[in-house]
Write a structure and sequence with these properties.
Strands 1, 2, 3, 4, 5 and 6 form a 6-stranded parallel β-sheet that branches. Helix 1 links the parallel strand 1 and strand 2. Helix 1 packs across helix 6. The protein has a single domain, classed as 3-Layer(aba) Sandwich (Rossmann fold), CATH 3.40.50. The chain is globular. It is α/β, with parallel strands linked by helices. The two termini are 24 Å apart. It contains 6 helices and 6 strands, in the order E-H-E-H-E-H-H-E-H-E-E-H. It binds flavin mononucleotide. The site of flavin mononucleotide has 16 residues, from helix 1 and strand 4.
Length: 213
């Protein structure tokens, strides 16, 4: 008997560091997804496991068959296999000078053939998450991720299900504590951002169910 294909949600840890803040946010989001349903195939991707070459602007992806010649020598095909076909994609990226990490920027640029092949990510749910050292700056990362998603035709969501007055909508961790001279120590996490990330996972999982109906 043929097994039913599972609905897939892909989550990308966009930091070159595998077990730090971005990873924390993604793990929280995964917990949230699992609270809604255990039926999803969860694809957790560490961007640092993949060797992807920066786009060189050759524009070959503009011409049929809209393929990128760089894929012959790097891991982009492997990533494509994991990402395409997902019903939702979440990316957590670190704040590097107000923007995403270079690893995530390379992924974004190299995703251009997916757009040129008539929007392969169209109507996929997308949620951005960010980690940052200081309190401010994560918003730039979120904007970069939102721009990517909108240009690819995805549906962007944040978590806005809690108290509209008290609760944050976008999961941005900061290493900085309320007392700004203090930073999160080893083994500590930004609890509030974790709650928001978990709620975001729940929301994404719920929306995937609604859209599939
Ligand atoms: C090259 C580089 C640039 C950074 N630039 C900023 C910055 O402009 N503002 C900031 O608040 N943190 C900055 N940081 C700190 C990272 O955003 C912070 O450590 C983040 O939590 C890293 O995510 P990770 O723990 O998942 O690796 C920078 C870190 C690096 C390595």
């Amino acid at each position: 008997m043929r097994r039913k294909k599972l609905t897939k949600i892909s989550l990308i840890v966009g930091s070159p560091r595998k077990n730090r803040s971005c990873n924390f946010l993604i793990d929280q989001a995964i917990e949230g997804i699992k609270l809604i349903s255990s039926d999803y195939e969860i694809e957790k991707i560490q961007i640092s496991d993949y060797n992807i070459t920066p786009c060189n602007g050759c524009d070959q992806c503009l011409r049929p068959p809209n393929d990128c010649p760089l894929t012959e020598n790097d891991d982009m095909n492997k990533l494509e296999e994991k990402i395409l076909g997902s019903s939702a994609i979440l990316i957590a990226a670190p704040n590097y000078f107000g923007s995403v990490s270079s690893q995530i920027k390379v992924l974004i640029d190299r995703s251009r053939p997916w757009k040129m092949k008539k929007y392969l990510l169209k109507d996929v749910i997308f949620a951005p998450l960010a980690s940052t050292g200081l309190r401010n700056g994560g918003e730039g990362v979120i904007s970069d991720l939102i721009n990517f998603a909108l240009i690819q035709g995805m549906i962007v969501v944040a978590n806005n299900l809690g108290s509209p007055v008290i609760e944050g909508n976008i999961p941005i961790t900061s290493l900085q504590k309320f007392n700004l001279k203090e930073f999160i120590g080893k083994g500590e996490t930004d609890e509030l951002a974790g709650i928001i990330a978990k709620d975001l996972g729940k929301r994404v999982a719920n929306l995937v169910q609604k859209i599939k109906k």
